Amino acid sequence: xxxxxxxxxxxxxxxxxxxxxxxxxxxxxxxxxxxxxxxxxxxxxxxxxxxxxxxxxxxxxxxxxxxxxxxxxxxxxxxxxxxxxxxxxxxxxxxxxxxxxxxxxxxxxxxxxxxxxxxxxxxxxxxxxxxxxxxxxxxxxxxxxxxxxxxxxxxxxxxxxxxxxxxxxxxxxxxxxxxxxxxxxxxxxxxxxxxxxxxxxxxxxxxxxxxxxxxxxxxxxxxxxxxxxxxxxxxxxxxxxxxxxxxxxxxxxxxxxxxxxxxxxxxxxxxxxxxxxxxxxxxxxxxxxxxxxxxxxxxxxxxx
Length: 304
What we know:
By secondary structure, the protein is an alpha/beta fold. It has helices at 48-57, 75-85, 108-111, 148-154, 167-179, 182-187, 211-224, 243-251, 265-274; strands at residues 8-17, 20-29, 32-39, 62-70, 95-100, 114-119, 136-137, 141-142, 165-166, 191-196, 202-208, 234-237, 256-259, 277-283, 286-291, 296-297. α2 (75-85) crosses α7 and α7 (211-224) runs parallel beside α8 (243-251).
């Protein structure tokens, strides 16, 4: 396959300044759909590749679970992180392989917009809970997102105590996140999610037109590397922290979630109910703690 989409695309623009305008070529962040398909095992080993293709093309043991608008890159991580965050898979070893589409009748560029997730089980998991997000957007995540009640029904445990992180370490995270945003430097149009340890060391950073996609890529990286749960880690996201950012962090076991902007009211409610330290407006010397102040070493006694 030679037509793998790039994370950046060229665009012809006009630069308008006082009294003049001039053309130039600019870089913009690529946004394309990604279809995530689940495929069950159980195809006879001696069936041959043609029989396998026919079975899958007829929909047997295969199902599309989501179509998301994303920036190409780390698609394997994105698919794995999405499935984990939605509770479709619980462990990395439930996956036997993830690859871009291999159907011979598709154009090469379209193959790169489909990811097949092959399961070890010969039965697809219950997907009724996913009926609401056959289509997601890069901006807001899954449409019709489930409420806090759905997390309670899933039996999601609260995040245990610890770790404690020095406030000075937290203040360094935005700059370290920004330093890892290589595609943003070229386009100025991407969100990012990063994973840090309690000492502020950057472990992983991923970019995407959707902040929830960026976090899925980070969680997928951790899942496929056998690093979950992330019980001793910090997630930092550009922009705001929404309900979905907190849900994905909760599923990954993240105790501290930071953002450079404000959280939503539902994000605050989720953080308080499930024991997540939620930090917003993390810029310069100041930040707000909306939940879980006990994990922040502020250098003064905590209020009672």
